[in-house]
Every structure is written in C-alpha cells, then in structure tokens.
Amino acid sequence: MELFSLGLSVVALALAALAMLKIRKLEFCPEVVGGDVILPRSGRAAGAARVLLPLHFCNAGHAGGIVEWVALRVTPEADADRPVLLSPAAEVDMQRFIQSRRRLTEDNCSEPFTGFALDARRSVSKFILFDVAERGRAAPLALRPGRYYFELFVKASNASQPKLERSFEHVLEEKHLADYRDDLAVYLIDYQVTLPGVRRALADSEWLPQAAPARTSAR
Description:
By secondary structure, the chain is of the alpha+beta class. It contains 4 helices and 10 strands; from the N terminus they run αβββββαββββαβα. The protein has helices spanning 2-26, 94-99, 174-181, 196-204; strands at residues 30-33, 37-39, 51-59, 65-76, 84-91, 116-118, 123-132, 146-156, 163-172, 186-188. The strands form 2 sheets. Strands 1, 3, 4, 5, 6, 7, 8 and 9 form an 8-stranded antiparallel beta sheet that branches. Strands 2-10 form a two-stranded antiparallel sheet. The longest helix is centred in the N-terminal third of the chain and has 25 residues, at 2-26.
C-alpha cells in the first residue's frame, strides 16, 4: 500500500511538472543573445564613450509579448564600486553605419529606441546605442585599460521587474584605446556566444569588420 501511494505521488508530481512545462511554453518567454560590443567612431573624446550592442531577441514561448525597455550596466574592474548605468540612446541602422565608415551620424542613428512586439517563436536583431542614463548628472563612461563587466537588463511585459538577461566581460587593451583615439571603431568580440543561428543572423547584417582581400602578384 505504501509503495502504491509512493508511486501515485511520483506520477502526480511528474504530471504537475509536465503541466507547468506546457504552461510555460504557452507563455511569452523572451531571451536575449549578445555579448559583442562596438565602440563606434563618434567624434567624442575617449573619456565620454558610448557603446553599440548587436543584440538578438528571441521568444521561446508560444505567446507574443512586448519588450518594453533595456538597460546596460558597465563596471570597470579597477573601479568596481562605481558602475555606470547606460540607457538606450538610439537604434542604429547598421547598413548606413557601415556605409558611414562606422561613424555615428544623424542619418544612421536618428531612430529612438522604443518598446517592440515579439511574436510567438520569432526573433529579431537590433543594434542599440547606449549612453549614460543621466547625462549631465552622472559621470561619463571613461575608457581605460583593464577589464570591464557588462550586465544587460530587460523589462518585458511578462514580468513586473526588470531581469538580468546577459552578463559578459571584455578587456580593453592600450591598442584598443589608441585606435579609438585615432577615430577608429573598436570591436570587442565575445567568443562565448556559440549559437550558430545567432552568429549567422548577425553575420548577415555585415556589422563585423571585413578582412581586406588578399592581393595576388602577377607572375
């Protein structure tokens, strides 16, 4: 009798877990894949940087919803008690960004970032420019050699509070800063992002720097 009761309890638990899984699949389940950072040419001083994130939003659920807003917190390892909060300044048109030689202009980043719908089992890539959330009141994002930690927060319609969706890190080397001071775009690539589909989707946008074609000498 005890074994029968135990078996019945196990079956009930399994059915409850299956029901919860099915309910979750029917919900809005947004996820974000990212980790690469671009420091674009902008004409600003190196001590007042903005960052451009290529982000891939996907909905694993069978119900649609709204991605309401995003925020980025950047923490220098050398100054860990002073993180910098960044908010979206604009959405960047990457084709125009590439055509502008990776410089931010009114033509390629004139659209403000707004909440957007994400349908069931669908995904969308967005290129979001982040700047200091309280410009004029908060200290700018200063760039110095060292390790930086990035935390991406997302507020979606399926939650009452923002959620930490991604965390990653990059090391800024002196060469990166020298390139940035020389008005070159700097690319910090997160090789921990290994989803082939996401890599292909972002590669289709041609945002990565392209290698120069090899020269062949005439024989």
